[in-house]
């Protein structure tokens, strides 16, 4: 399955993960799409990371920065994989290539040796 153009073009996506009881939890995240995968980065201690460890099933929908999904937006199902630490920096740089704000923050953190919170890359296959 390919990723719909509306999701590729969207600045944010609503990444829905699922609690152990099946309750959906949507979160707006930055992303980069390539082929049939979507890459994002999250704080390693985030709830979505814990939920992905328990259940890799996710749903993705285009949304705005506040996570509001437009009426009629297409939702696609996928499987999330948490990247090892050795690949998280590459995922972070991929996001920096798309988002100026991430690029500025990443550059400042490297220049001034600012310690960033532990992060983990997430790759979603649709």
Structure, described:
It is a single chain. Helices cover 31% and strands 37% of the residues. The radius of gyration is 14 Å and the shape is globular. The protein starts with a helix and ends with a strand. Helix 3 packs across helix 4. The chain has a single domain, classed as Roll (Pnp Oxidase, Chain A). It has a seven-stranded antiparallel sheet. It is of the alpha+beta class. It contains four helices and seven strands.
Jot down its keywords:
single chain; 126 residues; Pnp Oxidase, Chain A; 4 helices
How are the secondary structure elements laid out?
Elements: H1 5-9, E1 12-18, E2 24-30, E3 32-34, E4 37-43, H2 47-54, E5 57-63, E6 75-82, H3 85-98, H4 100-111, E7 119-125
Antiparallel strand pairs: 1-2, 1-5, 3-4, 4-7, 5-6, 6-7
Summed up, what is this model?
By secondary structure, the chain is of the alpha+beta class. The chain has four helices and seven strands; from the N terminus they run H-E-E-E-E-H-E-E-H-H-E. The chain has a single domain (5-125), classed as Electron Transport, Fmn-binding Protein, Chain A (Pnp Oxidase, Chain A, Roll).
Low-confidence stretches: none
Distance between the termini: 6 Å
**The CATH class:** Mainly Beta
| Integer average pLDDT | 92
Query: DSSP helix count?
Result: 4
């Amino acid at each position: 399955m390919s990723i719909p153009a509306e999701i590729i073009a969207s600045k944010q996506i609503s990444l829905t993960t699922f609690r152990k009881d099946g309750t959906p939890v949507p979160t707006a995240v930055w992303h980069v799409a390539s082929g049939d995968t979507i890459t994002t980065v999250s704080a390693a201690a985030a709830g979505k990371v814990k939920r992905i460890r328990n259940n890799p099933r996710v749903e993705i929908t285009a949304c705005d920065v506040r996570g509001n999904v437009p009426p009629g937006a297409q939702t696609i199902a996928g499987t999330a994989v948490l990247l090892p630490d050795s690949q998280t920096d590459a995922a972070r740089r991929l996001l920096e290539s798309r988002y100026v704000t991430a690029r500025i923050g990443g550059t400042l953190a490297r220049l001034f040796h600012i310690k960033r919170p532990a992060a983990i890359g997430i790759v979603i296959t649709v």
